[in-house]
Amino acid sequence: MPLAIAAPFLSVTLMDSTKKKLGFLDEVIKLLELKNARTVHSRLEDAGSSEVHRGNYDAVVSRAVGPMSKLAGYCLPFVVPGGYMYAMKGPSGREETIAAESMINKFGGCIERFEELSLYDSVENECMSRTIVVIKKVEFQK
Questions:
Q1: What residue ranges in 74-125 does DSSP mark as E strands?
Q2: What is the predicted pLDDT for the residue at 141?
Q3: Nearest Cα to Cα of residue 138 among 74, 77, 79, 81
Q4: What is the C-alpha to C-alpha distance for residues 31 and 105, in angstroms, rounded to an integer?
Q5: How far apart are CA 89 and CA 99, in angstroms?
Q6: Would you say domain 54-142 falls under CATH 3.40.50.150?
Q7: Mean pLDDT of 9-35
Q8: Domain spans in the chain, listed from the N-terminal domain onward
Q9: Does the reported pTM lie above 0.90?
Q10: b/e string for 29-39 if b means 16 or more Cβ within 10 A?
């Protein structure tokens, strides 16, 4: 949603398996009159094997939802060759991603870089370390 708001020239698809979350996002899209955003109710595993979604996105952005070995298998099928997968991971994101490199390669990806971030958590009153993992899709899935 932040990408759709900040970059109205992008076409943004928001996917989730929970209808309640998507209902909220649909309301925000309507309220903000976002013409560049839409929601899709589906599990990643299902949508990634659908001709409608498979290999049809220039970029996929994921929050920290699971181990990189699984996340790559869920997200990379959506990305066109030459496109990117961006995943937010915790402080051990670099090590986790390097350990999952063979799975990333299996789905046509190549680790491009890591962006280290420090985010302030005002609730916990502490600084949190995060890693943005950038993976380039270099070929269709083998």
A1: 79-89, 109-121
A2: 60
A3: 81
A4: 41
A5: 14
A6: yes
A7: 95
A8: 1-41, 54-142
A9: no
A10: beeeebeebeb
